């Protein structure tokens, strides 16, 4: 059985990378050999494949988070265990977030890709979608957003943090009542396993989603212009992401030792899906399954992953500080070190719990720029290549959450 599973995983990974390459090739051919109108039309239809796949995943996320987290907390047995594991989880999350922010700040100041940038063909209206979402973005809005007005509304809109809050209260209440709630927990446990079975069916559509997402981008974007204009920005960003991967893997090795190699083999497929679809949310169910196969107890996975998707987005954190300072550089604004460190603290707080917001990183960047009198319209500078950056930061988010869950499982001797 194990051999069959490994072969299946390998086939899915190969299919995803083939779809990625075919998507690039198809998009470039359409862009170079057809009219602009046809390319836009093709892009719209191609995006449907990605949209259908992501919607299939979104369809099962809310019930999966609720059932797995409630069962996970109930299986922890007592409030002391919940507090201990939760404390370790948050300690890891905030440490990783701070390191990610500092890495982004270091490399953006080292390379200075925005200094002297010629603002050619920049359309401020392109940033309208993002800047509109920052109008209500405040500390008050953030706090109010944490607690759901209705758990059904939270589930209907896939607000992960709100679902997590409700699930934690539900799970703690169930755990405190002991054996009385065992029948309910058993039912939820069986529902969780049914949903995980659905994951196998949904993941068969992953290559189509990856192909659609990539082909849509390359059909409408001029690759040569992107390369010439943004090579320095993208190069510096990749150095930052590479540095973050090195730090995460080194820290992971210190805790997991030889098991790190097996973990990486397990999460190749989730990493590829996140990279191709630019959605770390799309691999939540598959990542849950692979971490349990890796050997982390289901009660730890069920508790850690939902929290991680709200508090532990390492790739997005690095990108947010990188992009914010880049826009300041491109706007000719000099930020001293104290101001940049203050910006990091703001990003640390405002970035938590907005994983369900479309283009969440850009929304936080726009809000932060507004706080520090940096032109929010500068978001238009990075929109043309945001999709490519999002591919790398989504994969990094998956790696960070896989390592966090595995390390906490190791701390708990599970």
Distance between the termini: 23 Å
Elements, N to C (H/E): HHHHHHHHHHHHHHHHHH
**Gyration radius, in Å:** 21 Å
- Which regions are unreliable across 5 or more consecutive residues at pLDDT < 50? 1-9, 118-122
Number of helices: 18
Report the count of strand segments.
Answer: 0
Helical content, roughly?
over 70%
Q: Give the rounded overall mean pLDDT.
A: 82
Sum up the overall morphology in one term. globular
Quaternary state reads single chain
By helix and strand content, what is the structural category?
A: mainly alpha
Report the biggest beta sheet as strand number plus sense, adding barrel if it closes: none
Strand content: under 5%
Please write out the topology.
Blueprint: H1 2-33, H2 36-76, H3 79-111, H4 128-133, H5 139-146, H6 151-156, H7 160-176, H8 182-202, H9 206-220, H10 223-256, H11 259-266, H12 268-277, H13 284-294, H14 298-311, H15 314-330, H16 337-350, H17 360-371, H18 379-411
Helix pairs in contact: 1-9, 1-12, 2-7, 2-8, 2-9, 2-14, 3-10, 3-14, 3-15, 3-16, 3-18, 10-15, 10-18, 12-18, 13-14, 14-18, 15-16, 15-17, 15-18
């Amino acid at each position: 059985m194990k051999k069959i599973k490994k072969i299946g995983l390998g086939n899915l990974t190969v299919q995803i990378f083939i779809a990625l390459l075919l998507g690039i090739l198809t998009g470039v051919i359409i862009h170079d050999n057809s009219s602009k109108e046809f390319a836009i039309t093709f892009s719209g239809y191609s995006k449907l494949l990605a949209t259908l796949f992501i919607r299939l995943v979104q369809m099962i996320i809310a019930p999966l988070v609720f059932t797995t987290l409630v069962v996970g907390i109930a299986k922890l047995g007592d409030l002391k265990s919940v507090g201990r594991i939760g404390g370790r989880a948050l300690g890891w999350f905030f440490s990783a977030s701070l390191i990610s922010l500092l890495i982004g700040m270091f490399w953006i100041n080292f390379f200075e890709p925005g200094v002297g940038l010629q603002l050619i063909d920049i359309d401020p209206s392109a940033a309208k979608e993002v800047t509109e979402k920052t109008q209500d973005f405040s500390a008050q809005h953030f706090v109010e957003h944490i607690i759901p007005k209705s758990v059904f509304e939270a589930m209907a809109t896939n607000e992960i943090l709100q679902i997590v809050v409700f699930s934690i209260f539900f799970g703690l209440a169930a755990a405190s009542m002991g054996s009385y709630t065992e029948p309910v927990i058993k039912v939820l446990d069986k529902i969780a396993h049914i949903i995980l079975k659905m994951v196998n069916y949904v993941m068969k559509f992953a290559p189509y989603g990856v192909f659609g997402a990539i082909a849509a981008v390359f059909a409408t974007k001029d690759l040569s212009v992107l390369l010439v204009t943004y090579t320095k920005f993208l190069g510096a960003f990749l150095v930052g992401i590479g540095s973050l991967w090195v730090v995460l893997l080194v820290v992971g090795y210190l805790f997991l030792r030889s098991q790190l190699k097996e973990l990486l083999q397990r999460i190749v497929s989730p990493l590829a899906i996140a990279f191709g679809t630019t959605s770390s949310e799309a691999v939540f169910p598959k990542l849950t399954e692979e971490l349990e196969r890796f050997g982390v107890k289901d009660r730890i996975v069920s508790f850690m992953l939902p929290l991680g998707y709200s508090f532990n987005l390492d790739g997005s954190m690095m990108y947010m500080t990188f992009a914010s300072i880049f826009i300041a550089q491109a706007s000719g604004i000099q930020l001293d070190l104290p101001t940049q460190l203050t910006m990091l603290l703001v990003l640390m707080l405002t970035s938590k719990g907005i994983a369900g917001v479309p283009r969440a990183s850009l929304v936080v960047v726009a809000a932060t720029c507004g706080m520090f009198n940096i032109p929010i319209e500068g978001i238009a500078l990075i929109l043309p290549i945001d999709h490519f950056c999002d591919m790398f930061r989504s994969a990094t988010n998956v790696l960070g959450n896989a390592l966090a869950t595995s390390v906490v499982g190791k701390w708990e001797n599970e």
